[in-house]
Amino acid sequence: MDLKKSWTVGDSLDYKGFPAEKSKTGGWIPAALILVIEINERLSTMGIAVNLVTYLGGTMHLSSSESANIVTDFMGTSFLLCLLGGFLADSFLGRYLTIGIFAVIQAMGTGLLALSTRLPQLQPPPCGMSNKCQKASGMQMGALYLSLYLIAFGTGGLKSSVSGFGTDQFDETDEKEKSQMAYFFNRFFFLITTGTLLGVTVMVYIQDEVGRSWAYGICCMSMIIAILMFLSGTKKYRYKKCSDSPVVHILQVISAAVRKRNLKCPSSNALLYEDSSETMTSRIPRTDQFRFLDRAAIMTEDDTEVNVLNGTSTLNPWKLNSVTKIEEVKMVIRLLPVWATTILFWTIYAQMITFSVEQASTMERTIGGFQIPAGSLTVFFVGAILITLAFNDRIIMPLCKKYWNGRPAGFTNLERIGIGLVLSVIGMAVAALAEMKRLAVARQAGEAVAQRGATLPISVFLLIPQFLLVGAGEAFIYTGQLDFFITRSPKGMKTMSTGLFLTTLSLGFFFSSLLVSIVNRITGGGGGGGGANGQGWLADNINYGRLDCFYGLLSALSALNCAAYLLCAAWSKPRITNINNDMQQQQQQQQQQIETMTKTSMDNINDNC
Fold first, then answer.
1. Predicted local distance difference test score (pLDDT) of residue 533
2. Any bridge partners for residue 298, and if so which?
3. Is there a contact between 85 and 158 (Cβ–Cβ < 8 Å)?
4. Family assignment (predicted)?
5. pLDDT band at 605 (very low <50, low <70, confident <90, very high)
6. What number of other Cβ atoms are within 10 A of residue 276's Cβ?
7. What is the Cα Rg of the chain in Å?
8. Is 250 exposed, middle or buried (0-12, 13-18, 19+ CB in 10 A)?
9. Which residues contact 148 (CB under 8 A, 6 or more apart)?
10. Cβ distance 378 to 353 under 8 Å?
11. Residue 134 gets which letter from DSSP?
């Protein structure tokens, strides 16, 4: 048996369903094939997102606010669907099938987007000499929406499973493979950034200089090639069995607590049910927060179900749950305040790929004989992320390890999140000042130069500070959030907690759309909004709007959010009650209660018979 364990991998299976052999499955080659899918996903999604606002305004003739909302809704849906993809992968399809199916869906969406940007019938006619533009029709927008949301659907399924399936290729119980898994995580984040860099530089350049349909067609073909490479590793992959959904676990605890809402919760831990099959190290001590849920561990006669045929009894998880399972649900609840206070950062992030790109499209972007595409300015954003990560790894962490005992990892996850939020506040304040300068130049330039599509005599590099500040903020907050949600979540809910983290990105984009709509409604009518010609803060032509006021509003909201975050971060720590150390006595009392409940249930059955 020991020999068999040495050449097979724990609970991993091969493609035939047999125990996976170490020598024939897993390792770096299968993991690399999985990473190819992620590179192409980032290449397509970010290459489309960062430059989509210019297509919507310049070709489809939509307003600035409407264009921004389409982009943020697209990105928000992509991240929100990660929850669906994770649920399907964990409970039904498995990660391999989930990746394969959703990769095909994304390739279909990218191909349809290439077609919609190529056919003249799916675009409105160009603006006439009078500068009057015909807005895209419902059919034309419908074709665009279909392609975008197929891509979003594919992205959501991929992002939830790629990292998990990659780590499945390494055995955590093997020290050599465990170190390779840590290396995989580093390369995974590096390749995400590499894919993003290629998207915001090469793909954006091809879109602007060669043609959007060519760029999107390249993305489609590269994804098809990636899918074929992914499928080629089918016999080499290690697979995990599908397990029960953490969502069901949470619902069981809540259901049991609601059923027993009228019972008084005992003060002693010994009177609450704990699963005897759980080892001492895997048990979670009872805490005094959310005591209502503790009622789910109160044992009653109705908690057992007796099989009449063989006389065995089982506990109904919808009526009774162990203290450890209840504490796992409490751990998820404690994540929520920090989760809520990080959403606004991603609203600010959304401005970097929408309004900031539109700002860049109005400014002087020429270096020598080369004109920088407006969407490619986000390369400074990505560069700030890489520089900040390198600075943290090479300078901050070694200094903390040398001079600050107990801090070998540098800043804690909550501190990193806080730093990211502060940088976002400063970034929006700087963005507001830069926009004030740009608007002053637009007013001085006169009516002809300020028209939509014209270039203002001001350098685009004025926008670099806001990209650098928010990019550095993302480096801190992304790593902090990921660390927080993984380390503070229960062992069996790591996938769900990662999905919960990704929903902050989704809701941040959706909140951006909502905020833009509210600001438009309040400031856009009657000339009372402060914009030129009565167009409000977010005018169709940003040269006549007050985008600086919108950025200032975001900076103020973020400052208030930072204050709320400090309170939530302090509250998120669990408060443990006094624990009864005599675990044997607790188990004996529980066993007696279970035997009594079983005997009572059998007596009731006999009486009824």
1. 55
2. 272
3. yes
4. Belongs to the major facilitator superfamily. Proton-dependent oligopeptide transporter (POT/PTR) (TC 2.A.17) family.
5. very low
6. 12
7. 28
8. middle
9. 48, 70, 74, 109, 113
10. yes
11. P
β-bridge partners, 19:
13
Using pLDDT thresholds of 50, 70 and 90, give the confidence band for residue 232: very high
Instruction: Parse the chain into domains and list their residue ranges.
Output: 1-127+134-242, 246-321+574-603, 334-572
Token digits of residue 291 = 């005591």
Q: How many residues does the chain have?
A: 609
Beta pairing, strands 313-315 & 239-240: unpaired
Question: Is residue 1 pLDDT above 60, yes or no?
Answer: no
Tokens 């903390």 locate to: 400
Q: How far apart are CA 272 and CA 193, in angstroms?
A: 48
591-594's contacts with Cβ under 8 Å and 24+ in sequence apart are: 591/276, 593/299, 594/299, 594/304, 594/313, 594/315
Per-residue pLDDT tens over the stretch 511-566: 999 999 999 889 875 444 555 555 688 887 888 889 999 999 999 999 999 999 99
75-105 pLDDT, tens digit per residue, is 999 988 888 888 888 778 888 999 999 999 9
How far is Cα of residue 582 from the mean position of the Cα atoms in its chain? Answer: 43
Please calculate the CA angle 433-439-443 and round it to the nearest 5 degrees.
145
Residue found by looking up tokens 């804690």 in the block: 412
How far is the C-alpha of 203 from the C-alpha of 47, rounded, in Å?
Answer: 6
Rounded distance, CA 172 to CA 57, Å?
A: 50
User: In a 10 Å sphere around its CB, with 0-12 CB exposed, 13-18 middle and 19+ buried, how is residue 533 labelled?
Assistant: exposed
In CATH terms, are 1-127+134-242 and 334-572 the same topology? yes
Give the count of beta carbons closer than 10 Å to the beta carbon of residue 490: 19
Distance CA 117, CA 214 (A): 9
CA 247 to chain centre: 18
- Compute the distance between CA of residue 300 and CA of residue 529 in angstroms, rounded to an integer: 63
Which letter does DSSP use for residue 574 in this model?
Answer: -
Q: pLDDT digit string (tens) for 175-186? A: 777 767 766 766
* Dihedral, CA of residue 411, residue 413, residue 415 and residue 416, to nearest 10: 80
Q: Does domain 1-127+134-242 have CATH number 1.20.1250.20?
A: yes
* 152 pLDDT higher than 60: yes
Residues facing 472 on adjacent strands: none
Nearest to 113 by CA among 375, 42, 105, 372: 105
How far, CA to CA in Å, does 55 sit from each of 62, 68, 176, 320, 373? 9, 11, 49, 56, 12
CATH class of 334-572: mainly alpha
Q: Any idea which of 323-337, 506-520, 594-608 has the lowest mean pLDDT?
A: 594-608
Strand 239-240 to 8-13 pairing: antiparallel
Flag whether pLDDT at 7 surpasses 80.
no
Instruction: Of 338, 310, 387, 352, give the one whose Cα is nearest residue 504.
Output: 338
Give dist(CA 283, CA 580) in Å, integer: 13
